């Protein structure tokens, strides 16, 4: 029995006639399924249904094992090229000390250089909720300090007792080229 994502092969194809494409890629035409199976068997290959929704279904004579291997290779390459972007969170308070602020901004810059998105959160306790503008000032200052490395996805907004802002990394071509050059030299 064929799996959901895989095409039907040889005897799994349950139709009376198919549009056949031979191993060279040339169109043979509409032939009965039995004749198509015999042609595939004579050439030592498989009959694979490539377009089941067509009328009549399109089948191709090919080496199914090789086709499946190539498909897996393509999928693996596609997965390798996808970059998983993680979100790092940095929490601050509206009355953050200068040294603490600089330390947090340094961490944010490192995350942005590494290509991570950063969620900057300001937590308000008790009466601090009355002074939301202090938190907004801290977030605006963070945005200004990280200007060359990241840009804000949206303006700071309140979520419960937190005021949050997302920073997305900006990849500069000159930096990425310089990084590649240093890697190739070592």
Q: What is the architecture of the largest domain at the second tier of CATH?
A: 2-Layer Sandwich
Overall 3D form: rod-shaped
Helix content: 25-40%
User: What's the number of domains?
Assistant: 2
Q: How does the major sheet shape up? A: 5 strands, mixed
Distance between the termini: 52 Å
The chain-level mean pLDDT equals 85
- What is the gyration radius calculated from CA atoms? 29 Å
Structural class: alpha+beta
CATH C-level name of the largest domain: Alpha Beta
String of helices and strands: EEHEEHEHEHEEEH
Number of helices: 5
CATH fold group of the largest domain: Translation Initiation Factor IF3
Contiguous runs where pLDDT drops below 50 for at least 5 residues: 174-184
- The tally of strands reads 9
The proportion of strand residues reads 25-35%
Organism: Acetomicrobium hydrogeniformans
Keywords: Cytoplasm, Initiation factor, Protein biosynthesis
Protein name: Translation initiation factor IF-3
GO cellular component, one term: cytosol
Tell me what the structure shows.
Belongs to the IF-3 family. It is found in: Cytoplasm. This protein has 186 residues and is α+β, with helices and mostly antiparallel strands. The protein folds into two domains: 10-65, Translation initiation factor 3 (IF-3), N-terminal domain (Ubiquitin-like (UB roll)); 87-176, Translation initiation factor 3 (IF-3), C-terminal domain (Translation Initiation Factor IF3, 2-Layer Sandwich). It has helices at residues 33-42, 64-81, 98-113, 132-145, 173-185, and strands at residues 17-21, 27-32, 46-51, 58-62, 87-92, 117-123, 150-152, 157-159, 162-169. The strands form two sheets. Strands 5, 6, 7, 8 and 9 form a five-stranded mixed sheet that branches. The longest helix has 18 residues, at 64-81. The protein is rod-shaped, with a radius of gyration of 29 Å. Mean pLDDT is 85; it is low at 174-184.
């Amino acid at each position: 029995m064929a799996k959901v994502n895989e095409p039907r092969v040889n005897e799994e194809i349950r139709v009376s006639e198919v549009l056949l494409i031979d191993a060279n890629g040339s169109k043979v035409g509409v032939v009965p399924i039995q004749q198509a199976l015999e042609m595939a068997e004579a050439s030592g290959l498989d009959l694979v249904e490539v377009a089941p929704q067509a009328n009549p279904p399109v089948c191709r004579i090919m080496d199914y094992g090789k086709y499946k291997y190539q498909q897996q290779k393509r999928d693996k390459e596609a997965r390798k090229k996808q970059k998983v972007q993680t979100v790092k969170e940095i929490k601050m308070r509206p009355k953050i000390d200068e040294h603490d602020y600089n330390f947090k901004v340094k961490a944010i810059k490192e995350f942005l250089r590494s290509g991570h998105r950063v969620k900057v959160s300001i937590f308000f306790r008790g009466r601090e909720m009355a002074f939301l503008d202090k938190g907004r000032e801290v977030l605006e200052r963070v945005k200004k300090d990280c200007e060359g490395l990241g840009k804000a996805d949206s303006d700071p907004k309140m979520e419960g007792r937190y005021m949050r802002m997302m920073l997305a990394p900006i990849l500069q071509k000159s930096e990425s080229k310089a990084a590649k050059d240093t890697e190739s030299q070592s």
